[in-house]
Amino acid sequence: EASQEIFKIASMAPGALLLEAQKEYEKESQKADEYLREIKDQKLLPEAVSQCIEAAGYEHEPDTQKSLLRAASFGKCFIDKFPPESFVRMCQDLRVLNAIRDYQIGIPLTFTQYKRLTIEVLLDRALPVGDGAETSLLAPFQVQQKDKSDEEVAHAINQKLGDTPGISYSEIAARAYDCGRTELAIKLLEYEPRSGEQVPLLLKMKRSKLALSKAIESGDTDLVYTVVLHLKNELNRGTFFMTLQNQPVALSLYRQFCKHQERETLKDLYNQDDNHQELGNFHVHSSYS
């Protein structure tokens, strides 16, 4: 009904007027204000926003969905204390629906079917079908479950996905981090087999020491250098040196770096370690230089 009201010919429904107002606003036309005033004068702006949100759910074309959601977002700006839950939920639902409608999964559900089926049943049906594309389906839903602990959610996701080819646990972890669930993101990264994917996200989450441990475990020298140089810029000098003291592999690699790039820092490292033999060698080499 909402879609019919908005898109029928010569419609004067509040949602239709709000959609036109938003389009005119993008064109920088004064007609946007005229349409908006017409809706506000009738005190129908909340209804117009709700109508656009509802209609977006019944549209299959992403461009039309976006257009309706932009109109709803535009209308919300002129309403005091409009509850955002319906808008946010619709964005999440559409992301799921668009993901499962993708040809790689191929479940072209309507919005009504999706609501009646429930997300849990849909996940069980969709996950065995896709080949990596299900990540975009799973992330918006499971990482936002507030009634379960981080460990339970991470385990549930791993139980669903296992080691399926094409799955990127780092992508799901990034989604969890964006939702404010840092600990869940870290637990999800434990299932990510590629250290090159784990480490950058850990650095982004400011878990640099954990990133360093993961980089060392990977045996990838370049990855270790990346984390060490990140720590060097992030920590003060004393804390940086103390962190390296606890990681002999990283310390050894950093010494090699300093020998070629930062000779004076190398002297400070030897002083920190009370390594008089190497400190003496350093001064002899410096004298010859």
TrEMBL record:
Residues 18-45 form a coiled coil. It comes from the Eukaryota. GO terms for cellular component: endosome; HOPS complex; lysosomal membrane. The lineage of its organism: Eukaryota, Metazoa, Chordata, Craniata, Vertebrata. Residues 167-288 form the Vps16 C-terminal domain. GO terms for molecular function: actin binding. InterPro entries: VPS16, Vps16_C, Vps16_N. This is Vacuolar protein sorting-associated protein 16 homolog. The keyword Coiled coil applies. Residues 2-89 form the Vps16 N-terminal domain. Pfam families: Vps16_C (PF04840), Vps16_N (PF04841). Keywords: Coiled coil. GO terms for biological process: endosomal transport; intracellular protein transport; vacuole fusion, non-autophagic. Belongs to the VPS16 family.
